[in-house]
Amino acid sequence: MGLGEAIRPPYALIDAWLKALPADQLHHKRAEAEVLFRRIGITFAVYTEGGDPERLIPFDLVPRVLAQAEWQRLKRGLEQRVRALNAFIHDIYHGQEILRAGKVPKELILHNPQFRPEMVGQDLPHNVYTHIAGVDMVRTGPDEYYVLEDNCRTPSGVSYMLENREVMLRLFPEIFRKARVAPVAHYPDELLETLRSVAPRNCEGEPKMALLTPGIYNSAYYEHAFLADEMGIGLVEGQDLLVQDDICYMRTTRGLERIDVLYRRIDDDYLDPLVFKPESMLGVPGLHYASCAGNLTLCNAIGAGIADDKAVYIYVPEMVRFYLGEEPLLQNVPTHDCKKPDELAYVLEHLDELVVKAVHGSGGYGMLVGPHASQAERQEFARVLKARPQDYIAQPTLALSTVPCYVESGLAPRHVDLRPFVLSGDQIRIVPGGLTRVALKEGSLVVNSSQGGGTKDTWVLEG
User: Fold this and answer.
1) Domain-by-domain residue ranges, the chain?
2) Which residues form the Circularly permuted ATP-grasp type domain (predicted)?
3) Which uninterrupted H or E stretch holds 290?
4) For the domain bounded by 336-396, which CATH number is listed?
């Protein structure tokens, strides 16, 4: 919904609320929100720029609103998609039936840097590999959503979803008294229950859990500390853990304490120097072997990243059909695979119309938004594409819907996406809503915080 359009029913209450606010109220509340976020300490680090890298992610005061029926359709689609993704990851590390059936190209998987041969034949509790998935989606019209990408390794951003809601509750309690907004504050409880449900078969008694962080210099460290605190589990770095006889222990003032489930926020390459990068100082020697012995569950599992490769993404609808025998409820964005000569030729001819993404890229880096790029930028990107076509995919620039946002000039439409968080263990758990990211620059389609994007609270109406 952009300004000047008819008010969609879920926004009727928001429209009336905004019209009733004094003219300068939002300006004052925005300043108050910034004070709250600074007091909370929720910052985002950007290390590619000079100066102080710590900054607040811009927060928009106008919530993004979804009707209950709309959310239920999305929820069913998310559950279906993540079930298929977990079935796919299990399959490629076991029978590889989807490869033998020719539904997904073998070379795309077996030669992929995110494919971990070390996981072949390893059985995991409930056959779950991506316990925490973040699925990025965009709305293009009434009841029409597309999945942009799947984040199956170490998706971030849930702390912003939770803190955005907390700040809105503090700033505007009166609107929450009028609107029946589904809560999200129970996410840490749902996450804890998910982690508990995938404890290894060799676990003795109540599972002991911890969250493994790369440390204070990681851009998402605030989130790591926040979630560990909310769940009441230990926040640990590599030096706080050790593996003896294929059992993982945490060092404490009372001695060694066994860890059964480790929610790790460290990438595969740095997780276990005995298996992956030997120079890594972030991980713990022997973690992989503790997992293989059935003494430790790593969440997300090593090798889960194969499912969020942007070239593998093309085949997710086929995974739904292959493993579940169902038609996909959520659609992919039409995607061109640049390693195919005919598709590369099309992309090169239509660079001014397409968004080109690096297959292994993230954070909005390594991409070209053709309609907003200069002729020189497109020419340079064409050179890179011709040199390494296998590293890129391309998608049309969708006619993304907009939502009202409060910017310097007042209320204005801006493009958004939505990242719901899907938890998989003994069952699938999804709190209503997710993280809405906003492209705050006028006309921009890039919502990543590292590229100047912001966030807003996401409301799912219960009635």
Assistant:
1) 9-200+296-332+399-460, 336-396
2) 63-439
3) helix 287-292
4) 3.30.1490.270
